[in-house]
From TrEMBL:
Function statement: Catalyzes the formation of phosphoribosylamine from phosphoribosylpyrophosphate (PRPP) and glutamine.
Gene3D superfamilies named in the record: 3.40.50.2020, Glutamine Phosphoribosylpyrophosphate, subunit 1, domain 1
Cofactor entry: [4Fe-4S] cluster; Mg(2+)
Positions bound to Mg(2+): 298, 360-361
Protein name from the UniProt record: Amidophosphoribosyltransferase
Reaction(s) catalysed (UniProt annotation): 5-phospho-beta-D-ribosylamine + L-glutamate + diphosphate = 5-phospho-alpha-D-ribose 1-diphosphate + L-glutamine + H2O
Pathway participation: Purine metabolism; IMP biosynthesis via de novo pathway; N(1)-(5-phospho-D-ribosyl)glycinamide from 5-phospho-alpha-D-ribose 1-diphosphate: step 1/2
Recorded name of the encoding gene: purF
Binding site for [4Fe-4S] cluster: 251, 397, 448, 451
Cofactor note: Binds 1 [4Fe-4S] cluster per subunit. Binds 1 Mg(2+) ion per subunit.
Length: 477
């Protein structure tokens, strides 16, 4: 019997990109390259929507960016000088093509395209209210509620419509919105998900991460601040901040794991933050060993930082297969171990007989650590000490990261010592939350670290089973 062995990344989110260029300059290929550079943020589906000022075109499908957009599609289908794109990792709604983004809807004034990174915590409730009003939905994603509300409030222009929508939606959202004549970017009032603006000679780029600006040759202008709406059109760009101010709470996991290390988010280089975390980890949890290794690729900067601060040499302990797909068919039980080693194979010649400290960025379910500690020991490591550059993940995320239910989070149900035993490490140490925050170097109070602390910046009780049944804001719909 054939069995599907799943190599899904364990937690991701989505990536968005938007490009505005002078009339008559095609943008679809730029959006494509931008999406390519954000592929790490979502690998389930991808899409591009463009407008030539009159008509809106789109193409989306399941799979990776490079497999979805084949030659010819840009010239034949995706015409226009304004475009948006999305790579998806589903958080609300199934992973099938109808739920792929961007969403493109037609309304009385034309078309709206929308790409969303994040997750709403009151989407179900809003959707119910809209359905009671006779609205029909084409998808099962939270993002469709947003596009629906924008269309509904569009009488007095897009910025007004977005402001009204922002009064109703709760949760995390970095949006790029496309109309026939403008590109709009929006970051939620807490700034949970990132979004930045870049400038080219003949236009502008909006992207989840600055690495996309680099790839497109755009010069970084600024991060979109929490609660800002940036409108890009023939006149350049204009920024409006919503009146109601709330505490900034940007996702600290971007620095730990999601973002590419060459990105700079809210003024902080991701590579530098990871290296700092490694340095702090070395001080908080030293290890008497011969070599520091990383679990490639995410934890490499943290491992380098650990090595630097401890004076222990950094070495390669695993070789990662860079060509591995999301899933593959595992022929039979006897190949199960081969399947595990296919992604990360210990570099036996480098680790045999050594005492190792292995740095990883996070432990979520504990499956990765358990497998690889064991494989290092089998490959001849004398001791394997594990150090983690984030605190135990002990609470679910409802803001766009697909962490599992709390009872599947090993950090929620076991002590550090129990986890150490389970993964069969000789010792285990996690960076403290204070150490992690210090590694990023921004104001203490400006992060969402709910996955470690359980302190949620936006009420999530409706997502935890206690459904809220009424709220005043809906009376305004
Ligand atoms: O405790 P777990 O549930 O196993 O999750 C933790 C692991 O998941 C992530 O890696 P992942 O394999 O998702 O992707 P990566 O190759 O980018 O590190 C993360 O970097 C940890 O290694
Ligand atoms: N990970 C995300 O940002 C997902 C965006 C949106 N909630 C969706 O499921 O499509
Ligand atoms: Mg990993």
């Amino acid at each position: 019997m054939f069995e599907t062995f799943n190599f899904d990344k364990l937690k991701e989110e989505c990536g968005v990109v938007g490009v505005y260029r002078n009339k008559n300059i095609e943008v679809a290929k730029m959006v494509y390259y931008g999406l390519h550079s954000l592929q790490h943020r979502g690998q389930e589906s991808a899409g591009i929507a463009t407008t030539d000022g009159l008509h809106t075109h789109f193409h989306k499908d399941m799979g990776l960016v490079q497999d979805i957009f084949k030659d010819g599609i840009f010239e034949e289908k995706l015409k226009g000088h304004i475009g948006i794109g999305h790579v998806r990792y589903s958080t609300t709604g199934e992973s099938y093509v109808a739920n792929a983004q961007p969403l493109v809807v037609k309304y009385r004034r034309g078309s709206i395209g929308l790409a969303h990174n994040g997750n709403l915590v009151n989407a179900a409730l809003l959707r119910e209210r809209l359905e009671d009003d006779g609205i029909v939905f084409q998808t099962t994603i939270d993002s469709e509620v947003i596009v629906n509300l924008i269309a509904r409030f569009s009488n007095e222009g897009m910025v007004y419509a977005i402001e009204r929508t922002m009064e109703l939606i709760r949760g995390a959202y970095a949006l790029v919105v496309l109309t026939e004549d403008q590109l709009i970017g929006v970051r939620d009032p807490h700034g949970l998900r990132p979004l930045c603006l870049g400038k080219m000679e003949d236009g502008y780029v909006l992207a989840s991460e600055s690495c996309a600006l680099d790839v497109l040759g755009a010069e970084f202008v600024r991060d979109i601040e929490p609660g800002e709406i940036v409108t890009i059109n023939e006149e350049g760009y204009q920024i409006k901040k919503i009146e109601k101010q709330v505490k900034k709470a940007s996702c600290i996991f971007e620095y730990i794991y999601f973002a590419r290390p060459d990105s700079i988010i809210d003024g902080v280089g991701v590579y530098q933050a990871r290296m700092n975390a490694g340095r702090i980890l070395a001080k908080e949890h030293p290890a008497d060993v011969d070599m520091v290794i990383a679990v490639p690729d995410t934890s490499i900067p943290a491992a380098i930082g650990y090595a630097e601060a401890s004076g222990i040499p950094f070495g390669e302990g695993f070789i990662k297969n860079r060509y591995i797909g999301r899933t593959f068919i595992q022929p039979d039980q006897s190949l199960r171990e081969a399947a595990v080693r296919l992604k990360l194979n210990p570099l036996k010649q480098n680790i045999e007989g050594k005492r190792i400290v292995m740095i990883d960025d996070s432990i979520v379910r504990g499956t990765t650590s358990k497998k690889i500690v064991n494989s290092l020991k089998k490959a001849g490591a004398k001791e394997v000490h594990v150090r983690i550059s984030s605190p135990p993940v002990s609470h679910s995320c409802y803001y766009g990261i697909d962490t599992p239910d709390r009872n599947q989070l090993i950090g929620a149900v076991k002590t550090v010592e129990q986890i150490r035993k389970l993964i069969e490490a000789d010792s285990l140490g996690y960076i403290s939350l204070e150490g992690l925050i210090a590694s990023v170097g921004l104001d203490n109070d400006s992060f969402c670290h709910a996955c470690f602390s359980g302190s949620y910046p936006i009420d999530v009780s409706s997502m935890q089973g206690n459904v809220i049944t009424s709220s005043k804001v809906f009376e305004r719909l």
